[in-house]
Design goal:
By secondary structure, the chain is of the alpha+beta class. It has 18 helices and 28 strands.
Length: 738
Amino acid sequence: MGASVIGQSLPRIDAQAKVTGQAKYPGDFYMEGMLHAKVVWSEHPHARVRRIDTSQAEAYPGVVAVLTYKDVPVNEYGINIMDQPVLVAEGDKVRWVGDRIAIVVAESERIAEAARRLVEVDYEPLPVVDDSREAMRPDTPLVHEEKGTNVLERFKIRKGDVEAGFARADVIVEGYYVTPWVEHAYLQPDAGLGYIDEEGRVTVVAAAQWAHDDLRQIAHLLDLPEDCVREIVPAVGGAFGGREDMFIQHLLALCTYRLQRPVKMVFSREETVCRTGKRHPFYMRYKTGATRDGKLTALETELISDAGAYASTSTVVMTNATTFAAGPYVMPNAKIDGCTVYTNNAVGMAIRGFGATQAAVAYELQMDKLAEALGMDPVEFRLKNLFEDGSIAVTGHPMPPGVGIKETLRQAALAAGWYKKEDGHWVRPERPAPVEGKLRGVGVACSYKNVGYSMGFDDKSTAVVELSLDESRQVETAVVKIAASEVGQGVHTALAQIAAETLGIGMERVDIALVDTAGVPDGGSCSASRHTYMSGNAVMAACQLAREKWCAALRAERGKTHIEARYTFHGRHARPTTPFDPETGMCDPHISYGYATQIALVEVDAETGEVGLLKLYSAHDVGRAVNPQMIKGQIGGGVQMGEGYALMEEYIQQKGVVRTRKLSEYFIPTVLDMPREIVPIIVEVPDPTGPYGATGVGEMTTLPTAPAIISAIHDATGVWIEELPATAEKVLMGMREK
């Protein structure tokens, strides 16, 4: 049997194909005789569509068809709630600028581009709802009249006696925190190819995070059985949550279904920026109390998110934010209200952190304010309140074994220069001295997030393992079939390592099959930092079954030369979850968790307010590190997104009209903005239910970055920035006011 590969920094199995250009992305696919499609987008964020005239476009030489709502068998889709039209009908409304009126299909991309400008649409403009707080008022125009309110959904948690908790507090701090819209900014613009395969199935090649769920939605809107639809996911140029909703797959499927010919569609970068979903902005009011000795007593908070025009994943994003609103701290009394609201802005959707990112900004700045008010070291204050195994969370459940949050803080603090005195008190390093008019400060932030789908959802992942044996009945190849989308995070490499470890063979003998719904079982979504845990458990169990069959073949005189094993791992079998109690919010919400601490060293220009991130310590409890080098890569990428969130990223809309129209108008950190040094710290506190103890790390690497940076800015300047991003202008104005 082979040597252990778990814990080894082995090269990614897709690295060579990607760096040599051999890997094919959706935009690289071509078929003889294929057509090209372009979308006619809404010209208004909110308007009634009176009439659609496609006659001029249809008459344009080279145009094959102009599809409208009349061509859609069932004109609705949606990842959670089917509240989105595929193409907006006459008499219906456009609700944001990403709504589609028609699709022009032509012999060339150039012809399709020219012809789509000839589609005439008569609109009746309607009042635009652009602020989620104002949208909650009873006199505000409705985005969805049939709902009777702009409030999509509310959630609440009631734990203990909040008034008594505040009465017992010696210090109470408050804050009102605002986080912005954020663009995913993945490298590969939306693109894909649709065709009818050899078995007559409507087939789509596209970037996706959950191909089987796309299948469900496409089959519904085409009014076809699911086995008549197929989706293939090749190499994906980034996702970060942005490929979870469909923005191109269903359009390709419709074109192919109607025309029975191959159809290619490629969005321009401007279309990707302006016509796809974004991270929800949050408005968060916080009030938190603590005793003189540093123990938390009570929390009262209200969270409001802007869902945009359609539901997408807004309800579950707010569910997550609500469950994580108190942070990884023991909070004996809490009153938490979460609300997500329809507007005519961009659709709010999944993006790295999924509601936990926004909440972390608020609860960590509250921890800093409390520590400062008590005159207590921020590390020591946190350690007094952080979870341990069995701690009771804000939703009333005991934290399951494998809680590593204190260890991440301890290791990060020691690496950053803190030390613990003999009397048990923690002492921070000397505050960095100003350098040539630049102030320096250090900030700490902790966070945690769920691994796997939550709140009673039956999260599951299915793997098939096929072993080919040679004449001596040794394994020649092991093919792992599981529809776990590789969107850049390295999941296929991690699953290959788990398979090789379980089978006791070398990595070179393991192949991961292409994600193709026609022959690969459903691995669930590439989200919730779940694949290492969920799909890893499925692959491990399938390999264990295959190994048992292999051992039986070795014992037999005439053993098999081909072995197949299948296993479906259900998260509920490891740790059942439950939804909110409607009155109290008490529940056991999540299967497993990942924990993180980051400590940031920043430099603030006293004259301009510009902030530079000099160094960042990033400690993550991953349960068990399957591939340490990939984790370090995730830390680098996560820190970049978190730094952008803290300092510069903001997707701007005014009255529902996009002002950040191009990637050049949306600021993301470049290599020149990144910290001069990132210190990755891998902490391993195994989860007994994870494959070899592993949990997940993908989203956790972003969660603490922004609050750590904002905390460091305060340490340097004395200014609290409560509205992200902390641009130079905001920091400078804060210093002047102070």
